Amino acid sequence: MDLVVVGLGYVGLPLAREACRAGLTAGGLDRDAAVVAGLAAGRSHVDDVTDADVAAMLGAGFTATGDPAVLGAAQTIVICVPTPLAPEGGPDLTAVRGAARRVSAHLRRGTLVVLESTTYPGTTEEVVRPILEESGLTAGEDFHLAFSPERIDPGNGRYGVANTPKIVGGYTPACAAAAEAFYGKFVETVVLAKGTREAEMAKLLENTYRHVNIALVNEMSVFCNELGIDLWDAISCAGTKPFGFQSFFPGPGVGGHCIPIDPNYLSYKVRTLGYSFRFVELAQEINTGMPRYVVHRAQQLLNNRGMALRGARVLLLGVTYKADVADQRESPARRIAEQLARHGAQLSYHDPYVATWQVGDLRMSRVADLPDALRTADLTLLVTDHSVYTASLLGEHARFLFDTRGRTSERPMANTELL
Asked: Each residue of 143-172: pLDDT tens digit?
């Protein structure tokens, strides 16, 4: 095979799809038997990959398996396994180490091995390379080793694997050249980093930049509310400057697989040097505090209308971490619901992508008739701005709306409050 992808999740499966589209023979290795069986039957478990995409992949010769022996037939192996946050604040590399061991057991001379899992700088050379060299082969001499950060943006219909520039850092110049040649077969632009550490750092820099700037506007939203300033309008005005400014927007918290997690990897690495990464730690403090602030504001808004939060009918709109995807990882909606429940609110939710929703021991009630639910809720809290939640729908039916996403910022309405 030209390629075997280890880990067929939201990163690995789109990568395999693009390789198949380019005419490469590709396979996938995953430890989840349900994922393997579903793909074999033509079913996708990833939002950005349709069942039709899987059918086309199968038609192009793609096979998914749980048998690591498939690695022995691969010219290129790309590791796309998850790296969740470990208790000490760094990445949990259990899956990466396990994948590297499986690759090592089947590694052949001349193979290219690429790590795409997000991690701290040094992981490719300090963790993955020694495991691979247990095969008796030497990186940079007998096989090629590189790091290439994934840049998947779930739900983004404009940018995908093929047209998003691909950063590649090789263990040696020859390793970099091999990785560049591989990705160049199905990615329009390949960007060469100086080495694996620089490529690893680039990924963390991208997400730390977003994390810090989101924290900035989140903190501004708190005191702008106290000062009676419409921050959304201020951001809109500042955004007209054609240079030196990029618009970021406040929200109920950060979620997903990157922003709440990845900057902590860098902070963890810096702490091993005896320093603290104060920007990241402060941003984390601000962003993780936003769900609590949202609940506090909700309580204030109800109090101003002569109502208590306890016993109030509160409708949550959108419980995924971002608009128009089904992914719930690290969604602030969960923390908001937990705190509202502790205050005694009567909760219900609506989300076109989530049929059932469990928050702790509480199975949340999903509304079927959205306009009726908007009219009867004491407070509707827009948490995730799915496209179905139009300003006209909310303006026509919502009895009282707390808009944490700015959906109604350009259309001021009665009975509506912005974050």
From this structure: 999 999 999 998 888 999 999 999 999 999
Buried/exposed code over 200-224 (b: 16+ C-beta within 10 A; e: otherwise): bbbbbebbbebbbebbebbbbbbeb
Q: What is the DSSP letter of 40?
A: H
User: Can you point out the beta strands (E) in 59-194?
Assistant: 63-65, 76-79, 112-115, 144-147, 166-170, 190-192
What percent of the residues of the chain are helix, what percent strand, and what percent coil, each to the nearest 5?
40, 15, 45
Q: Are 76 and 116 in contact (CB under 8 A)?
A: no
The long-range contacts involving 242-247, CB below 8 angstroms and separated by at least 24 positions, are 246/213
Per the annotation, the verdict on 224 as an active-site residue is no
Q: What is the pLDDT of residue 269?
A: 86
Check 20, 175, 224, 258 and give the catalytic one: 258
Alpha carbon of 252 to those of 141, 290, 320, 328, 418: distances in Å? 50, 5, 12, 14, 11
Residue 410's pLDDT is what? 86
E-assigned strands of 136-220?
144-147, 166-170, 190-192
Q: Which residues contact 48 (CB under 8 A, 6 or more apart)?
A: 10, 14, 152, 154, 155, 156, 160
Yes or no: say if 131 and 99 are a contact pair by the CB < 8 Å rule: no
The contacts of residue 245 (CB under 8 Å, 6+ apart) are: 238, 239
Average predicted confidence (pLDDT) for the chain: 95
Say if CB 319 and CB 384 are below 8 A apart. Answer: yes
211-243 pLDDT, tens digit per residue, is 999 999 999 999 999 999 999 999 999 999 999
Please tell me whether the overall predicted TM-score, pTM, comes out greater than 0.90 for this model.
yes
* 353, 326 contact by CB (below 8 A): yes
| CA 209 vs CA 119, 269, 296: distances in Å | 16, 17, 28
Backbone phi, then psi, for 154, in 5-degree steps?
-55, 135
Q: Give me the phi and psi of 358, to 5 degrees please.
A: -110, 125
Say how far residue 50 (Cα) sits from the centre of its chain: 19
Q: Which two tokens stand for residue 192?
A: 């060469």
pLDDT tens per residue across span 343-363: 999 999 999 999 999 998 889
Q: Which parts of the chain register pLDDT below 70?
A: none
